[in-house]
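From: lab user (bench 3)
To: helpdesk
Subject: output format question, protein + adenosine-5-diphosphoribose

Hello, I'm new to running complex predictions and I'm not sure whether the block I got back is the full result or only part of it. Here's what I submitted:
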Amino acid sequence: MDDFRGAADLLRKSRHVVVLTGAGISVESGIPDFRSKDGLWSKFDPAEYATIQSFRANPAKIWRMLLEMDSLLAHAMPNAAHYTLAELERRGVVEEIVTQNIDSLHQKAGSRNVTEFHGHARTLRCDRCRLKYGRENVSLESIPPLCSCGNALRPEIVFFGEDIPADAYRRASMAAGKCDLLMIVGTSATVAPASYLPQLAKGSGAALLEINPAESELTYRMTDLYIAQPAGKALPALLDALDVVNH
Ligand code: APR
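Helpdesk reply: Thanks, we reran it on our side. This is the complete output you should expect:
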């Protein structure tokens, strides 16, 4: 039985709640995650399609994977999990979301304090002349899309082998170090350095509340309270439990 009352108590008595989200929170929005069965990496080997080296060597090939990602993102809408986190921010319960996702669904759901640890897909940039283009202004009729300088454009996402944007890294590390509750929603916690954030939070004395229908790297090593349910069901139930606790 998942302990929503215990989770609500944790939320109620915490002063600095930060949320770390991964691809799992967007699965109910129709965007497959990466490592579950039928995840994106079951179709595209990340070592071949998701490294900066592979992009530089053959941008047209990597854009075949990026095109599939782009079409998934184009029609995706936030689900109840995203909306619940936005409501918890509005109530002053959640201070900040650090997301590994590039789908902008937290912002679409109304969350305002969102740190995008792996970048986003709203703009494309040229790594030669640094020009940036809004995604809506770029045709993907032919791939790779080209900059006016002739170089292949790439989305502002972080490929394997690239650094996390410095500002995002700083903000996320500060949030993890300062929080007294880290909610971890929909991540396998297998990819560094994002996977260091729960360790940083735990080391600073925070409690870890995890929501994931499957166990992750954290569940039996570090998590204090584990809710084994999909986020789209668990987060609205947590909000209901919070309403009960607060009355
Ligand atoms: N609700 C909550 N969690 C879910 C749901 C759901 N409805 N569906 C799946 N999950 C869980 C899975 O059980 C899994 O533990 O989400 C997790 C997704 O894990 P990954 O596919 O590894 O995605 P993520 O952890 O976000 O990957 C981190 O790896 O490939 C890189 O850059 C990519 O940001 C990504 C990073």
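A quick orientation on your result: Strands lie at 17-21, 94-99, 114-116, 119-126, 132-134, 153-157, 181-185, 207-211, 225-227. Let us know if anything else is unclear.
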